[in-house]
Amino acid sequence: MAAGVKAKHGLLNISISHVYSFCRKIAPKNVCIQRATEIQSVRAVSNGTVGSDHSEKYCVDLVRSRDYEGFLCSLLLPKEVWRSCLTLKAFNVELAQVKDSVSQKTIGLMRMQFWKTALDDIYRDEPPNQPVGTELWKAVKKHNLTKRWLLRIVTEREKDLDDRAYRTLQELETYAEKTHSSLIYLLLECLGVRDVHADHAASHIGKAQGIVTCLRAIPYHSSRRKVYLPMDICMLHGASQEDFIRGRREQNVRDVVYDIASQAHAHLQHWAVQRRAFEDISRNPAFTHDGHWVADVQRNKRCIMNPLCPPLKTPH
């Protein structure tokens, strides 16, 4: 869902100095200094001036154009896992953009079936002749990635093709767990982390990401006369889908957003407890990679409670 939203709003304009400033805010100073050369190299690859591997360039361009936040944060990852992690993000983008790019559900189901078959072929060492599939096969071979997490993302994205609102807040959390959290589990595996405490932290931050992404997408979905917010929360406060489509700001609309955002905040608190309890988690690049997102939530808390706030009209 998030990547589909990003596709409609284009790239952000940002200079290299802003990237360095951004990195300094969420990573230790010495890390940013040591990575300066790497970042320049990565930017060169993404611009096509270094490296001739078509599949890698395809994945870089895809993530940079559809998930710009994720692309920027990938620059903070260790060089030896950067390509694999970016491939996973490209895989997620490929699946996420299906819903918005097809006119009929049947076509979307066919594309999802392609990826189910592709995963079977990848684990048989017979990758499909498709850039993301080729790169994903390399990542699977290099890091022995768990097939279950990849298949779970495909299956949940396939269910989301039904194009209906979530029945309950728990259903939204389940979607976030099976998509956003599963992606973080795979990033952890790329980094060599297979730990129950890290997975627990990843589960919470993935759920929080999924919930907030749903909120950030309200203006975009409303412009297409669609509302995906949990129906049980809307009914609880007497808010109709038309209220969101028309951009109304009555108290019942704000109460719906507040209740949903509060659930995301609760998951962030659980994640913070895990970070404080286990030092290895707080130092893990996968969670440093997501640190910008948590900081952004904290800085824009007032806007998250008001989905029509200008900074959230262009979710990225």
User: Tell me, what is the CATH class of the domain at 164-316?
Assistant: Mainly Alpha
- Give the overall shape: globular
Oligomeric state of this protein: single chain
**CATH topology description of the domain at 164-316:** Farnesyl Diphosphate Synthase
Low-confidence stretches: 1-52, 311-316
Task: Give a quick account of the main beta sheet: strands, pairing sense, barrel closure.
Answer: none
Structural class: mainly alpha
Order of helices and strands: HHHHHHHHHHHHHHHHHHHH
Radius of gyration, whole Å: 19 Å
Q: In the CATH classification, which architecture of the domain at 164-316 applies?
A: Orthogonal Bundle
Strand content: under 5%
Helix content: over 70%
| End-to-end distance | 11 Å
Average pLDDT confidence is 79
Count of DSSP E strands?
0
Task: Tally the helices.
Answer: 20
CATH superfamily of the domain at 164-316: Farnesyl Diphosphate Synthase
Brief digest:
By secondary structure, this protein is mostly helical. 73% of the residues lie in helices and 0% in strands. This is NADH dehydrogenase (ubiquinone) complex I, assembly factor 6.
